[in-house]
Every structure is written in structure tokens, then in C-alpha cells.
């Protein structure tokens, strides 16, 4: 197996090193290494009403078409039954590959197995599943690194003492726990910072708003809210505005969504951590194309992590398109 070192540009800045080389597996045309080009690539995202997942689907679809494939984008809304039905549809439509943002780390394994059994290679983006060797690739943000730089910036905004709360994403998504663990690793270094509330808000803006209202009622003296994603953070900001406490409570986000970047520019959100979703969604399609043509993805390993970028007032103007930072 040959390997070489390739550099991947994460969201237009910051170099993320990814080892590339040969990957095991035969070509999709039957395992004989013969070239296979064209056909339908089915793209299954979570919920395109969230700009993060919309960008994921849009970028993957555009890249598939640019490489000579047909594409369609559908949404599971985080439901494994819907996801399973969408995979069935992809199989029925004779898709040559599936780009999948899995709905559940464990619950999506069956859908990936089903596609694999049908001879359709699956390339996972954004979230992982709890079984290696089924998907041809799993491309995700470096959530631990992103959480660390976010928490460090959050402490700069909030200070090293006082009460705070955390808004936690969907428990079925490994990213939620990884980010929470990353926050804890940093914040535990400040013993005078006390977490008085941790609420699950499922990546959702409305839930972020409602959970923040509940937090404020129980703990009106909190100094900060650290959030697992931007949608929950923006919901928190709305609740803080309603209560007249936005100046007293500092909020940090995670994703780099357009609304969050605008909130950073306005001084309402202290920062966001930009995930390079545009980079790895495009890369996943490129690896699918490589696999279909050669039987290899071009990546040395199944799981590939792309570094995140901290967005503050100082560099928010450099976010030139969704989830992309200019040099």
C-alpha cells in the first residue's frame, strides 16, 4: 500500500494534514478494478432547514454534477426509519454511491450495511457510525479540536469564575458528546467556573430558546452559555434579548453558520467555531468518484478529520460564503 502526505485546506484557511494513499476494496463495477463513471449519487443529509446541512447537500450535489454524475439530495430529519427508507430508494434507483450524514451513530449502521450488501459504496460526512469497515470513508470535523478552541475563547469572554450553562446537541449524535467533552477538558482547568445547568436542545434554535428560558428562571445569575452548535446558541441569544440579559450573559456557538457569523459581527455572539463542511462534503464526493473509477478512495484511512476555525469579530468579515473563510 502506497501512502503520501496530502494537505487539505479546511474552510479556505488552516491546513489539515490527511494521509492519502491506497484504500482497500474493489471497484463498484464488481471488484475487478475496472473504471465506472457516471450514474446517480444519492445524497442524504439531516435537515436542510439548518444552513449547515443545506450547505452540505448543496456542495456535495454540485461536486457530483461537476464530475459527471447525476445527483439528488434528500433529508432524514434525524430519523433512522426515514433514513432507512431513503437508502432503500437509493438502492431501487440504482445509485452508484451514497453520501450519507448518518442520523444516529448506532442506529444508522443497519442502513449502511444494507447499501453495502447491495454493492453501493457509502461515504459518511459530518457524523460517524459506531462501526468501522462498513463505509468506504467517514469525513468529519475535528470536533475535539474545535471544542477546545471554542472553550478557550469562551473563557476569554466570560472570565475564569462564575456560574454557566451548557446547551447540548442531539444525544444520538457522537458529535454532541465529543464537543461537550472538549468543553469540559478546557473548562475544568478553571475551578471557579461552575456548571449549574446542562440542557439537551437537539441542535434546534427553538429548543435552545426554550431551554435558555428555563435555565434563566432556575439560575438567573449565570454569566455564560456555551453551546454545542449555532442554532441552539442563536436560540439562547433570542431568549437573553427577551429577558434583557444579553449584555450580562456571554454565548459561544459552533458551526460557523451565516446567521451566527452575523451575530458575531453584531457583538451578540462572542464567537463561533467554523466547521469546514464545504470542504469535506466536496472531498467525500471526490473520494466516491475515485473509488468508482479505481476501486480506491485515495485516503489512507477510513476516518478523516478536518480542523475547525475560530471566528471572532476580528476575522468574521473574511467569511465570504457559507462555511468558507477567505485567506
Automatic annotation (TrEMBL):
<dbReference type="GO" id="GO:0030246">
    <property type="term" value="F:carbohydrate binding"/>
</dbReference>
<feature type="domain" description="Periplasmic binding protein">
    <location>
        <begin position="41"/>
        <end position="296"/>
    </location>
</feature>
<dbReference type="GO" id="GO:0030313">
    <property type="term" value="C:cell envelope"/>
</dbReference>
<feature type="signal peptide">
    <location>
        <begin position="1"/>
        <end position="24"/>
    </location>
</feature>
<protein>
    <submittedName>
        <fullName>D-ribose ABC transporter substrate-binding protein</fullName>
    </submittedName>
</protein>
<dbReference type="Pfam" id="PF13407">
    <property type="entry name" value="Peripla_BP_4"/>
</dbReference>
<comment type="similarity">
    <text>Belongs to the bacterial solute-binding protein 2 family.</text>
</comment>
<dbReference type="InterPro" id="IPR028082">
    <property type="entry name" value="Peripla_BP_I"/>
</dbReference>
<keyword id="KW-0732">Signal</keyword>
<dbReference type="InterPro" id="IPR025997">
    <property type="entry name" value="SBP_2_dom"/>
</dbReference>
